[in-house]
């Protein structure tokens, strides 16, 4: 259908007021984009690592290779493969950050070997190190080494977002995901680790693996001679 020109123009302000499309809501965060760029950069380093290497091991080759290893030529080759030409946002970010990447490549690589940490966390401040969250990269609940006791996901982990609270995996509950949900029992617990294991299907609660370990029978099962059947 073709709208008369005037009507089409009249629609324009309306279109601008429309809520963003669903895809826009899922737009990658600056941290995601930075991580993507770093992943591509690291891949580029792998891809160029064996280049210009004839296979022999002459002194000449060793010398040329070690020159190439940290050369601007290699950097350019890596940068070229970083963004699809159609990926506007990637190219925009690359253009804005090329100098940072070049400085890292030529001067800072040995001092800060982890590009993600140096670039996304320390320099652009769009991500946090693993196990930390939020604008100031605070430690997740349960500590940055093993957030949520290893039994859950820390909100905002690795990003500048979230509140550091735990979303526990199936079977676990509590602020640090150390407690067991109904239908699970604690099969190991010490200062640092807590492991919850599923009860037999006949138990609503239990203290062990079998139907003789039920505290209470699940709906549809009855207690008979000490077991839920
Ligand atoms: C707690 O249990 C885990 C898992 O079995 C074990 O690796 C760890 O060493 C234990 N820690 C202590 C303090 O006993």
Question: Topology of this protein?
Answer:
Elements: H1 5-17, H2 22-25, H3 30-49, H4 59-69, H5 72-80, H6 88-108, H7 115-123, E1 132-133, E2 138-139, E3 152-154, E4 166-168, E5 172-173, E6 179-180, E7 184-189, E8 194-198, E9 203-206, E10 214-217, E11 223-224, E12 227-228
Antiparallel strand pairs: 1-2, 3-4, 5-6, 7-8, 9-10, 11-12
Helix pairs in contact: 3-5, 3-7
The chain binds 2-acetamido-2-deoxy-beta-D-glucopyranose.
2-acetamido-2-deoxy-beta-D-glucopyranose (NAG) is lined by residues 188, 190-193.
Overview of the structural elements:
The structure is a single chain. The protein is of the alpha+beta class and 229 residues long. The chain is built from 7 helices and 12 strands. The protein has helices at 5-17, 22-25, 30-49, 59-69, 72-80, 88-108, 115-123; strands spanning 132-133, 138-139, 152-154, 166-168, 172-173, 179-180, 184-189, 194-198, 203-206, 214-217, 223-224, 227-228. A two-stranded antiparallel sheet has the order 1-2. It has a two-stranded antiparallel sheet with strand order 3-4. A hairpin with a 2-residue loop joins strand 11 and strand 12. The protein is elongated. 22% of the residues are buried. The site of 2-acetamido-2-deoxy-beta-D-glucopyranose (NAG) has 5 residues, from loops.
Beta percentage is 15-25%
Q: Tell me the helix content.
A: 25-40%
Q: Give the ordered list of helices and strands.
A: HHHHHHHEEEEEEEEEEEE
Low-pLDDT runs: 1-16
Average pLDDT metric: 87
Query: How many DSSP-defined strands?
Result: 12
Q: What strand line-up does the widest sheet have?
A: 1-2
How would a textbook summarize the main sheet? 2 strands, antiparallel
Q: Indicate the overall shape.
A: elongated
Number of DSSP helical runs: 7
List the ligand species: 2-acetamido-2-deoxy-beta-D-glucopyranose
Distance between the termini: 67 Å
What is the radius of gyration computed over CA atoms, rounded to a whole number of angstroms? 28 Å
Helical/strand content category: alpha+beta
Signal peptide: 1-24
Domain EGF-like: 136-178
InterPro entries: EGF (IPR000742), Furin_repeat (IPR006212), Growth_fac_rcpt_cys_sf (IPR009030), LE_dom (IPR002049)
Keywords: Disulfide bond, EGF-like domain, Signal
């Amino acid at each position: 259908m073709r709208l008369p020109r005037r009507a089409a123009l009249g629609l324009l302000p309306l279109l601008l007021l429309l809520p963003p499309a669903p895809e826009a809501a899922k737009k990658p965060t600056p941290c995601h984009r930075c991580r993507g760029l770093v992943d591509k950069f690291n891949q580029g380093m792998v891809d160029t690592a064996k280049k210009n290497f004839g296979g022999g091991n002459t002194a000449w080759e060793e010398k040329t290779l070690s020159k190439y290893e940290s050369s601007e030529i290699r950097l350019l080759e890596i940068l070229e493969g970083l963004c699809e030409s159609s990926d506007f946002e990637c190219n925009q970010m690359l253009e804005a950050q090329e100098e940072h990447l070049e400085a890292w490549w030529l001067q800072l690589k040995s001092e800060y070997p982890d590009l993600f940490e140096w670039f996304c966390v320390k320099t652009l401040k769009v991500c946090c190190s693993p196990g930390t969250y939020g604008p100031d990269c605070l430690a997740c609940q349960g500590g940055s080494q093993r957030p949520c006791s290893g039994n859950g996901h820390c909100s905002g982990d690795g990003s500048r977002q979230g509140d550091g609270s735990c979303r526990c995996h199936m079977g676990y509950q509590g602020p640090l995901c150390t407690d067991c949900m109904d239908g699970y029992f604690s099969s190991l617990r010490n200062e640092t680790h807590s492991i919850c294991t599923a009860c037999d299907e006949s138990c609503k609660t239990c203290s062990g693996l079998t139907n003789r370990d039920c505290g209470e029978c699940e709906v549809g099962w009855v207690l008979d001679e000490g077991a839920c059947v």
